[in-house]
Amino acid sequence: MLAAGILGVAFLLYWFLFGLDLLGNGAKVMSGCKAGELFGDDTNPIAGLMVGILATVLLQSSSTTTSIIVSLVGGEDGTISVEQGIYMVMGANIGTSVTNTIVAMGQMGDGDQLERAFAGATVHDMFNFMTVAVLLPVEAITGYLNALTKAMVKNADVKDDEKWEGPVKKIVSPLGKRVIIVNKSVTKSVAKGADCEEFYPNECVGKPSYTNCGKKFGLIACDKEHGYCPAFFSEDATSKDDKVSGGVVFFIAIMMLFTCLLGIVAILQKMLLGMSTRIIYKATDVNGYLAIAIGAGITMLVQSSSITTSTLTPLVGMGALRLEQMLPLTLGANIGTTMTGITAALVSDSIDSLQVALAHLFFNITGICIFYPVPFMRALPLTAARRLGRATRVWRGFPLVYIFVMFVIVPLFFLGLSALFEEDTKGFKVLGSFIVIVLALCLAYLAYWCAYQDGQQKCYTCMSTRERKRKAIVDLPDDMEFLKARVAALTEHTGLPEEEAAEKDAGEEVEA
Questions:
Q1: Nearest Cα to 327, choosing from 104, 123, 114?
Q2: Confidence band, pLDDT 50/70/90 cuts, at residue 276
Q3: 182: which DSSP letter?
């Protein structure tokens, strides 16, 4: 039984990882042109941060985002400066946590599991948000990361012709490449000012293959090593067709993730049935600093922090992993994912690209030094994550609102706001200043409303009401069947036919 359970988990885990691979590739194809346009903008610190967030949310991979940033910083035309690249990798750190937050929503069927899983996913968010809140102004004022990494790469030689690929990617990629292959050069070229339509149409002679299509592709490419083209490749495709294909793959991947997640959780629950929570906690209770090292090591192997955190999130949901242990593992994942950027820098021959990759590493290390060693500081992201988890108990729709607001609305708003200050027109700058003043007043009123006008309780009541309405709608058919059964039993008890019983009740109401 145990062996069958382990095989079942391994089988579903492979398809779960395959789904994550498809999720990232579908997102890259679906939004590759738009993400490239984001990278091409000349940005201030806030805009650079928001570009990093939005690009990573669109591409569903901080590894891809940082690799693109590193390559653009190291380009001959200097598309992105070192300082801009540093702000963008800060945003990539935040954007990567959206994947495991989406995975946590796969446990919506159980309130307890959803609360724990969402807390386990958002502890990553909270750490990243808090680290950025501290280090972004420090970097903007002092240039700490820029100066530190500049001193480190002063006499460095980064030229290297090899690129390392993690073993998990080697296992999953062969099947993934049969479905869809991303042409990452499109995003890089668009960031340098090219038009997405320049890559269309595909010009293939004979049966589509890497060589027969002239080694020139749109958003979906053919395999360079083996020559074949994936299932979603079409020689007559336009950019719109490829984006639709990316969207279809993205949707299929979401369905695969949720299905495999449900299967993994169900099997693990049966395997752990009878084991006390105390025993499970004991097995996962390792020293926090060792857990950071484990998280970093796993992520270096799989080459993706999203895979690490998304695989651990269901374990938090089912109670096999404590939130206190999830935090150091995610911190290690943050460090491990920087290896991809460093590897990309090693492929380049630019010192600037290595500087940005190292800035990403030391940004995460500095954040860990601030928020992990001191128990009081460590409690900040843990407490915030627990509160977010409890919010899902009050209203099941909260995760959707959270993802949409924190990873879409807020970055877009601040990106647009910062764009106003980048314009040379005085009118735009005045408008931007006015919006900043209004925003500050709104935030001040929100703080006052929550602290002195019982705002938190009102929010709680509002979400509770929405959840009650949702449950009432879901339970309505069962409640109607129950009432019908009770009426039938009452009618049988009184001995009256249904019509006579109804007339009697009506007569009694008239007399009253």
A1: 123
A2: very low
A3: B
pLDDT, one tens digit per residue, over 169-221 is 677 778 888 888 888 778 777 766 677 777 887 778 778 888 887 777 888 88
| pLDDT reported for residue 159 | 52
The DSSP line for 193-230 is T--GGGG-S----SS--TTTTTT--SSB---TTT----
Per residue in 133-166, pLDDT tens? 999 999 989 888 888 888 887 766 555 444 545 5
How many CB atoms within 10 Å of residue 279? 10
Rounded CA separation 512/509 (Å): 5
Q: In terms of C-beta distances under 8 Å and separation of at least 24 residues, what long-range contacts does 307-312 make, across chains too?
A: 307/17, 307/20, 307/168, 308/333, 308/336, 309/97, 309/99, 309/100, 309/121, 309/124, 309/333, 310/20, 310/99, 310/100, 310/103, 310/257, 311/13, 311/16, 311/17, 312/100, 312/120
The whole-angstrom separation of Cα 136 and Cα 48 is 11
Closest CA to 330 of 135, 64, 62, 84: 62
Using alpha carbons, list the distances in angstroms from residue 293 to 20, 194, 243, 288, 338: 23, 41, 39, 9, 14
| Greatest CA separation for the chain | 101
Burial class (CB in 10 A: 0-12, 13-18, 19+), 238: middle
Does 274 score more than 70 pLDDT? Answer: no
